[in-house]
Amino acid sequence: MESPVCTSLSTLSEMSLQSLGIGVAGKGQAMLKSETEIDAHDWQLLLHSIQSHIRKKSDLLIAVTHFLITKEYRLRCAINYSASDGRQLAGGCGTVCEQLPDHWNRDADRYTLNYTDGLAGQYILMAKLSRRDLVISLQNSTSKRMAIVCLQPEHLVNSTCKSSMDKCIPRLDKFIKRLRAELVDPAVRGTKRLAEIGPAFNRKIWKRELPVRNSGTSRVAFNIVESTHSLES
């Protein structure tokens, strides 16, 4: 006669919640966080893998944005990305992967990268470099969500030839937080910006850290939206 297997109440509760599709805080989430969390070693590996291909400061910012999207948000770069009208747009490496595709920075002032998630959702990242600004847009082609961030490579990037990422981008942590809040979270997770939903004191903090761009920047942002249609036409 087999002896009964003793199962603790906490284990049963966890199993019940998981059977309903509800995540349980604790070990599972800690493991997921450790897998997606970007540390100094990850940045070092990224820098060494791309440094020989970097030609200008905007290249480095695009590479960091790509790494954030693939590492933390678990999107994968796709080579055959279907546009809304059924056409195939090139821009990946193999079928799906984390690496930057070949010739990703071939154009002098434009970037285009395509991604897919685990639920077959499709995303397109487009960027336009002007005289001072790098405007990056990320669009969820499935849900039609779109977010835009305007960056200044000359202010963010100290050098592309330093030995570590935090020396190349001195305020790397703040830059990553800004990318999450302004670009990736709104497009991937559908979250609103703090300035739109937070209380008054949060809005003040937001404006101090991320100043509102001038009218010239707004024109650049409008042009990249127009360029999206022109590239697909």
From TrEMBL:
<feature type="domain" description="PI31 proteasome regulator N-terminal">
    <location>
        <begin position="51"/>
        <end position="192"/>
    </location>
</feature>
<dbReference type="InterPro" id="IPR021625">
    <property type="entry name" value="PI31_Prot_N"/>
</dbReference>
<protein>
    <recommendedName>
        <fullName>PI31 proteasome regulator N-terminal domain-containing protein</fullName>
    </recommendedName>
</protein>
<dbReference type="Pfam" id="PF11566">
    <property type="entry name" value="PI31_Prot_N"/>
</dbReference>
